Amino acid sequence: AAGAFSILTYLAGRADFANYLGIPYVAGSSELAVFCASLVGAAVGFLWYNSYPATVMMGDTGSLALGGALGTVAIFIKSELVLVVVGGIFVWEALSVMIQVCSYRLFRRRVFLMSPYHHHLQLKGLPESKVTIRLWIVAFILALIGLSTLKLR
Questions:
Q1: Cβ neighbours for 30, distance < 8 A, ≥ 6 positions apart
Q2: Residue 123 contacts residue 110 (beta carbons within 8 Å)
Q3: Res 54 pLDDT > 80
């Protein structure tokens, strides 16, 4: 997601590209591309040293900060709806918790074995490494879909 937004911020910061693609030009947003690229670098470093089996958990402190940073960047470049597409994994994980809570409170039934959704997949028997890799693949595809919306606007 941060990689996709590094491309989007760069394009929004260039008047010629923004005009050609029909996206809002935001003066100075090219500097946000450096910020997004540093988020990518930090995530790659974290994943490199935290590959299976995980020894350090990022937890809410890191993940909420990263999500807040991506949300702020999306607001700065006026691409909030693209964030919903690019961050589709994050959206689905949050929705799965909301669906589970609402279903249990209203009907006393669970939709998923456990929420968020990645825990449901683990309880279904998929190994953690397989769940992680498959979600990476889906996230990559969603990032490509988000980037493909550039010319569709």
A1: 9, 10, 13, 14
A2: no
A3: no
* Contact indicator for 146, 4 with CB cutoff of 8 Å: yes
pLDDT tens digits for 15-37? 999 999 989 999 989 899 999 99
Query: Which residues, at least 6 apart from 50, have a Cβ–Cβ distance to it below 8 Å?
Result: 56, 58
Return the structure tokens found at 52: 């299976």
Helix (H) or strand (E) holding 57: none
Residue 23 near residue 150 (C-beta atoms within 8 A): yes
Q: Are 32 and 75 in contact (CB under 8 A)?
A: no
State the DSSP code for 27.
T
Nearest Cα residue to 13 out of 79, 82, 70, 68: 79
